[in-house]
Write a structure and sequence with these properties.
The protein is mostly beta strands and 209 residues long. It has 1 helix and 17 strands. A hairpin with a 2-residue loop joins strand 6 and strand 7. The two termini are 17 Å apart.
């Protein structure tokens, strides 16, 4: 089963003493969202290894900040994105694969418990080893892990969006979520990503398929 979108999550793995601001200790005060998001995608691709994007695309800034790091109870942890040529395109404009552009798809992270305390950080999907920006590919699971906070962020999301990432150390992993399970009756074969599905119809009832 190949999904037509990518999945992305934010993880905090900050050791004691590695956050000089102290604002990342309470994960519920660390909200995030995606900016410069491509809104148009193709449901089907004949080649899963090739990024396909419709000829006409629109881009959006998400300012709700309604997603949270993995582990915050009762909150949304994930976002889903149509694939896009994020390495060489920024809001449709061609850019160098190694050069920063404010128009690339990125995370904006907000810390703080109130408006007066809010600070903002930008994170790009960037390969620190290869020194180039990453495409967003269908059926891939991207995990952004913050490991160190070196200073306060910007005073506004607009300011963070317009500048290259700074003041955070982070890693990015990209996992291909391709089918790993094959079920066959001898004539037909079905490729699956999971061999069990749990369906909840109430808060207490669970059905296994």
């Amino acid at each position: 089963v190949y999904r037509s979108v990518a999945k992305l999550q934010l993880v905090l793995d900050i050791a004691s003493g590695n956050d000089v601001t102290g604002k990342f200790a309470d994960k519920s005060n660390v909200a995030w969202d995606m900016h410069n998001v491509n809104l148009n995608g193709n449901i089907y691709s004949s080649n899963a290894s090739t990024v396909t994007v419709p000829s006409s695309s629109a881009y959006q800034d998400n300012t709700a900040f309604d997603k949270y790091p993995v582990g915050v109870s009762g909150k949304e942890w994930s976002t889903y994105l149509p694939e896009c040529l994020n390495s060489t395109k920024a809001k449709g404009a061609t850019v160098a694969v190694t050069a920063f552009s404010a128009g690339r798809t990125c995370l904006i992270i907000r810390t703080g418990a109130s408006l007066a305390e809010y600070r903002y950080y930008r994170i790009d999907l960037y390969d620190q080893t290869a020194k180039n920006f990453l495409d967003i590919k269908r059926n891939h699971f991207y995990t952004v892990t913050i490991t160190k906070v070196m200073s306060d962020g910007y005073l506004s999301a607009v300011e963070a969006l317009g500048n290259a990432p700074s003041n955070l150390e982070y890693t990015i992993s990209a996992t291909d979520e391709g089918a790993a399970i094959s079920i066959s009756n001898g004539q037909y074969s079905l490729q699956l990503s999971h061999d069990e599905v749990f369906i909840f119809d109430t808060k207490t009832a669970v059905h296994e398929m």
